[in-house]
Design goal:
Radius of gyration of chain A: 28 Å
Shape of chain B: globular
Helix content of chain A: 25-40%
Strand content of chain A: 25-35%
Bound molecules: flavin-adenine dinucleotide
Largest sheet of chain A: 7 strands, mixed
Oligomer: heterodimer
Strand content of chain B: 25-35%
Order of helices and strands of chain A: EHEHEEEEEEHEHEHEEEEEEEHEHEHEEH
Number of helices of chain A: 9
Distance between the termini of chain B: 21 Å
Order of helices and strands of chain B: EHEHEHEEH
Distance between the termini of chain A: 36 Å
CATH class of chain B: Alpha Beta
Largest interface: A-B, 26 and 23 residues
Radius of gyration of chain B: 12 Å
Number of helices of chain B: 4
Strand order of the largest sheet of chain B: 1-3-2-4-5
Structural class of chain A: alpha/beta
Number of strands of chain A: 21
Largest sheet of chain B: 5 strands, mixed
CATH architecture of chain B: 3-Layer(aba) Sandwich
Structural class of chain B: alpha/beta
Shape of chain A: elongated
Amino acid sequence: MEKNYDVIIIGAGPAGLSAGIYASRAGLETLIIEKKIPGGQAAITEHLENYPGYFQQGNGAELMKRMKDHATHYGCLFARDEVLSLELQDGLKLLRGKKHNYVSRAVIVAVGSKPRELGVPGEKELSGKGVSYCATCDADLFQDLELVVVGSGNAAVEEAIYLARFAARVTIVSVHNSGNLDAEGITSERAMKHPRIEFIWESVVDEITGEESVEAVAVKNLKTGNRDRVKADGVFIYVGSVPQTGFLQSVLELSHSGHIETDEKMETGLLGVFAAGDVRRKPVRQVVTAAADGAVAAVAAEKHIRQHNYYRQQIQDRKGPLVLLFWSPLNQDSIDLIPVVEEFAREHSNKFDFLKVCVDRERLISEKFNVETVPQLLLVNREDVLTRASGEISPSRMEDILTIARRE
Amino acid sequence: MLEINKDNFQEQVLDSPDLVVVDFWSPKCEPCMELKPHLEQLAAKYSQVKFCELNIIPNRRTALNQKVFGLPAIVFYRQGKKVAELTREFEIEDVEAKLKELTE
Ligand SMILES: Cc1cc2nc3c(=O)[nH]c(=O)nc-3n(C[C@H](O)[C@H](O)[C@H](O)COP(=O)(O)OP(=O)(O)OC[C@H]3O[C@@H](n4cnc5c(N)ncnc54)[C@H](O)[C@@H]3O)c2cc1C
C-alpha cells in the first residue's frame, strides 16, 4: 500500500513550490511530483525583473532554487516522476505516475504549460538543430550568428533582448502592424531601440529550412502575400503556450484552450482537487500570480483536509444511528429548525446522536450525502442514508424520522 | 566524467576506437544542469564506456563543428563517427536505453 499524503502537488514551478511552502509549513504531509527540473518555465527565464523584491538578481533559476530550498526547509518532499492520470477513490486521490502510484487526500494541479509550436514545415525536423524554445539553453551557441525570433509578446521580446547580447543580429517577426507589440511598453521600447534588433512586421514564418541545421526561414507578409527568405542560423519560437492538461481531460472541466476552470479559492469541479498557476484560465500568467495561486490553493487544500478528518470522525468512525440537520445561515427555515431538532435530540440522546451541518462550511459532508438544498434532515448509519426529508419539513415528517431513529 | 575541450576533442573523442558519450552543456542551461548528476550515475554504472563533458561556452566552435545547435545534447561516437544523438526533449532513461543498445 502506498503512503497516504495529505497533499500532493503536481508540478514544481512557482505555483507548485509556493503551494508546497504553504502546505508543509501548515504541518501537512506534502509531496511535490515533478517530471523535470524543479522551477518550471521560470527556471529557464534569464531576465526576471518583475517579481516583487527581486530585480537586481534578475535570474529565474536562482529564484526558483530559493523557492525549492524554502519548501524543503519546511519538510516538503519531492519525487521525480511524471503523473499520467488522476482518479478519485473513496474520497482519496489516486495518482498514477510513470514510475510509481501515489495517494493523497488533496491534489493541487500546478502543471503549467509548455511552449506552443508554430506547426510549420521544418520545425520538428530541425528542433534542437537551430529551432529552439529556450534562449538560456542555447544563446551561447549562437554567438555572432544571425537569429530570428517569432512572436510579439513579453516572452518573445524579452528573450530577443537577451539573445541580442550574443548574436550578431536578431530579427523579430511579428504579425502586428509596425510598432505594435504585445509586450509591455518598457520592454518593447528597449527592443525597438536596440542596435542589433530588427523587425519584420505584419508577417509570419511559414517554413524553416536547412540541411543539417537551420539555414533560413520563409517569411510571409500577411498584407501582400509576398514570401521572403531570411537567412538565419537559429529560430527561437515564442508564440504562447499550451497547458499540459491532456492527462486530466476526462476528469476535469477544461476550457477550449485546455486551461482548468477554477473559482477564486482555486477549487476545480472535483472536491479536493485544486489548480494553481499558468494552468488555470486567468488573465495574467506570471511568476508572481503563479505563486499567489499556489498559496491560495494550499490554504484551500488544508481546509479540505480538515473537513475530511471531520467527516471521518463524525460519520465513518461513529457507531449507531446519527441524525444530521443540514442548514445554512442564508436560509431562515433551516435556522428555525435547529432548536427544534436539538431539543428532540436532547430528549433521546441515549438512542441516537445528532449533528448539525452547515452546508456552506462543510462542503465535504454535504457532497457525500448529496445535499444541495436546505433544510434537510437525514438519518444515517455511518455512510448509509436510512431516510431523508427535504424542502418544507413538517413537524409530523420530522417526528417520523426521529421515531425511526429511536427504533434503530 | 572526463572534462574535455577544443584542444583535446580530437584525441579524446574522435581518435577513440570505442564508444564515447559526450555531454555538450552550458552552466546557463538549466535542463543540462539537471541532467548532470543522473549522467554521472550512468557513467559509474557503465564504467566500460568513456563519458566526456564539454562546456560549450569556451568551446563553441567545437560544438558547432559537431553540429550541436541545441542543448542539452548527448552525442554518442564510435571510431570517430557520430552513431547517435539526443537533443532537447529527452529523459535520462532515453540515454540509458541508447547506451544499452550501443553496448550490446
Ligand atoms: C520565455 C518566457 C519568459 C518569461 N518571462 C517572465 C518574466 O519575466 N516574469 C514573470 O513573472 N513571468 C515570466 N514568464 C512566465 C512564467 O514563467 C510563468 O508564468 C510561470 O513559470 C508559471 O508557473 P507555473 O508554476 O504555473 O508553471 P510552470 O512554471 O510551467 O511549471 C510547471 C511544472 O510542472 C511540471 N509538470 C507538468 N506536467 C507534469 C506531470 N504530468 N507530472 C509531473 N510534473 C509535471 C513541469 O515540468 C513544470 O516544471 C515567462 C515565460 C516564458 C516562457
